[in-house]
Amino acid sequence: MGRGHPECPQRLDAINDHLRATGLDVALDMRDAPQVDLRDVELAHSSGYVAELRDLLETVRSTGRPRAIDPDTTAGPATWDAVLRAAGAAVAATDAVIDGEVESAFCAVRPPGHHATRDQAMGFCFFNNVAIAARHALDARGLARVAIVDFDVHHGNGTEDIVAGDDRMLMVSIFQHPLYPYSGAVPKGTNMINVPIPPYTKGPDVRDAIEAMWMPRLEAFRPEMIFVSAGFDAHRDDELGQLGLVEADYAWITRRIKDVADRHAGGRIVSCLEGGYALGALARSVAAHLRVLAHVD
Ligand SMILES: [Zn+2]
């Protein structure tokens, strides 16, 4: 994204270093991300947008000249490959889980995806990794109902744009409001459970809101699989938001998601990294998330 940008390569280095330092890597089946099949991408994005973005990002790659998509979002020479592999990871993880190779999967990917709408890149996002994977599960793999859970500090406006009105999907989210992208206060469909949270809210109140607003709807929906937009920028150390979550809150949220998955979905969860920009807090929070998913105490 350019020098000094918070959405930086060091985010994934911090996660990998911490997993190794804590020995958690040993409990995980680590796989490389393949490039996505653009037919899967077109389940969530318009074919016009996909073609336009491919042309733009291939030009950036061949000329080596970065291009600003919006004031926050810049494409560099490696962006196209990263975009293909981030979405490819989500789809490959979905297949691995549906095929029973693994119970659940976490995709440590960049760039994030949940701000990318059906036909617009924005807010560090190009392809909506989670929406693509969810549609792949429904349309290519024949599932009937999937839930999307988004706990990034920012509202997942792109996912909402793609998912609203499609009753095969239920999206539950929690986000600071007001904050970029300043949407979400009024949900765009009856299959959206949006929970806006005021700045400076801490873990106990966030947990209460999740318990009251998410859990009854998730239970009633009985998802066959759960996708997670796992952003860790609601952490108290993260400067892109003003919420006060800590590692134990991320473990608790993951546990509640896993409870639903265990009851209705055979434990099937695919979680994809979204935000999280305070490197130490990001790495520790991802580890807390993974300990629950991987049954590591
Ligand atoms: Zn975010």
Structural summary, described in words:
The chain has 297 residues and is an alpha/beta fold. The protein has helices at 10-22, 38-41, 47-63, 79-98, 129-140, 157-163, 203-221, 247-264, 279-293, and strands spanning 67-70, 73-75, 104-107, 146-150, 169-176, 192-197, 225-230, 269-273. Helix 6 links the parallel strand 4 (146-150) and strand 5 (169-176). Helix 1 packs across helix 9. The radius of gyration is 17 Å and the shape is globular. Zinc ion binds at residues 152-154, 231, 233, 274-275.
What are the key terms here?
single chain, 297 residues, alpha/beta, six-stranded parallel β-sheet, two-stranded antiparallel sheet, 14% strand, globular, binds zinc ion
Bound molecules: zinc ion
Radius of gyration: 17 Å
Uncertain residue ranges: none
What's the order of the H and E elements?
A: HHHEEHEHEHEEHEHEH
Instruction: Report on the biggest sheet.
Output: 6 strands, parallel
Strand order of the largest sheet: 3-8-7-4-5-6
Distance between the termini: 36 Å
- Counted by DSSP, the helix tally is 9
> Which class of secondary structure composition applies to the elements?
alpha/beta
Mean pLDDT: 98
Please indicate the percent range of residues in DSSP E strands (runs of 2 or more). Answer: 5-15%
Q: What is the tally of beta strands? A: 8
